[in-house]
Design goal:
The N and C termini lie far apart (about 55 Å). With about 260 residues, the protein is mostly helical. Helix 1 packs across helix 4. The chain is about 55% helix and about 0% strand. It is built from nine helices and no strands.
Amino acid sequence: MGDIRTGAEAPSAAVPPPAAAPPAAAVPSAAVPLPGADAATRLDELIATVAFLRAPGGCPWDAEQTHESLVQYLVEESWELIDAIESGDRDEMIEELGDVLYQVLFHADLAAHTDGERFDIQDVAAHMTRKMVSRHPHVFGGDREASSADDVVAFWDDLKADEKPHRTSVLDGIPRGMPALALAQKVLGKAEKVGVVRAIEPSDAAAETEVAANLFADESELGAALLATVAAARAQGLDAERALRHAVRGLEDEVRAAEAAAAQD
């Protein structure tokens, strides 16, 4: 795991410093005790720990952090969680999920003590609950029905459009900081929604009769082809990441042109 430090300023009622070691069976001796600790959950304890570290007299490093300074750690912890998921190691997943959770709590507590923001983790949780209820009308007594995952995906775009009417393009909301390959996959999916389909050109005459689905037998074969492409680019002194980003920008231009043409019809 990365050396990730996180936190946010303490709430007005700062968590008191450790006074006495709690029962060993309940909380490790190094943990920050909470008022009414017997009734507190481990999540409450972690929230309080974040607050305590950023409170006056806590950790100077934590107190200095901003949303911007923490971005690198959020990215690193997210990738480490992906590694843990792919490895299938239970203990690593617990640890890395905890690191990502700590980042979320850090940003929320930081916001709670930043003028112009003033929200905390309870606001974040409340917003997410409303969002999930809104996105699942087929479960929470709304006007939609779904018997399969495909049914759900089919009406999600409509629900998102209702939630974010300021978005005018299918490309709006795509994170620009995504790695090029993930960005390409995302943009290709969005492009299909407006009828912009990137043709798959066979690399040689023998492959002309193959359909796209048969170009690669499985992800292992695809991965080998991608790695070979990157290796070839590297051998020629080309930047594969930058090259793909440039190609994606061209596809995005096509998408926006198609949307503009449709709007004029």
